[in-house]
Specification:
- The protein has 132 residues and is an alpha+beta fold.
- It contains four helices and six strands; from the N terminus they run ααββαββββα.
- Strands 2-1-6-5-4-3 form a six-stranded mixed β-sheet.
- A hairpin with a 4-residue loop joins β3 and β4.
- α1 packs antiparallel against α2.
- It is globular, with a radius of gyration of 14 Å.
- The mean pLDDT is 97.
C-alpha cells in the first residue's frame, strides 16, 4: 500500500530539514505558514510566515547548537482530512547543555502544502532549560 500523500510530505520535510535543505522546505510550506513552538524560552512562540520559520526558527536551531541539532523521525499518523502528526527524537548540544528528548509536530496541510505546525515536547521543562 502506498504512503498517504500527507505522510509523504511530512517525511520529505524531515529529510530536507536533516540535510539542511531550506529551499526544499520553503517549497513544502505556504507563504503564511505558522510554526508554534511550546515553552517559555527565547525560541518559543509563534513563527509566522515562511521567512520567520526558516530563517528565524530553523536558522536559530542550527546556530544556537553549532549545527549539532539532529532529529530522527519515528512515525507519522494521518487522518485523511488535512492533519498529520509526527513523532520524533531529537538531540542537541548548546554550550555545556545537552538535550536528548522525544517530541512531535501536528501538521495542518491544505492541498499539498503545510499551513501550520504545532510542536509538542515530551518534557517541556527540559526544553525550557536547554534553550534558556
Amino acid at each position: 500500500m502506498a504512503e498517504h500523500p500527507h505522510a509523504a510530505l511530512v517525511r520529505q520535510g524531515y529529510e530536507a530539514f536533516q540535510r539542511g535543505d531550506m529551499d526544499a522546505l520553503r517549497g513544502m510550506m505556504t507563504g503564511d505558514c505558522t510554526h508554534h513552538v511550546p515553552g517559555s524560552h527565547p525560541l518559543s512562540g509563534d513563527f509566522k510566515g515562511i521567512d520567520s520559520i526558516i530563517d528565524g526558527y530553523y536558522g536559530r536551531l542550527y546556530s544556537e547548537t553549532d549545527g549539532s541539532f539532529q532529529v530522527e523521525l519515528r512515525d507519522i499518523f494521518v487522518d485523511g482530512r488535512g492533519h498529520a502528526m509526527s513523532v520524533h527524537h531529537f538531540t542537541a548540544d548548546r554550550g555545556d547543555k545537552h538535550i536528548d528528548e522525544d517530541g512531535g509536530i501536528v501538521f495542518r496541510i491544505v492541498g499539498d502544502k503545510i499551513t501550520d505546525l504545532d510542536e509538542c515536547l515530551a518534557d517541556i521543562d527540559a526544553g525550557n532549560d536547554f534553550w534558556s
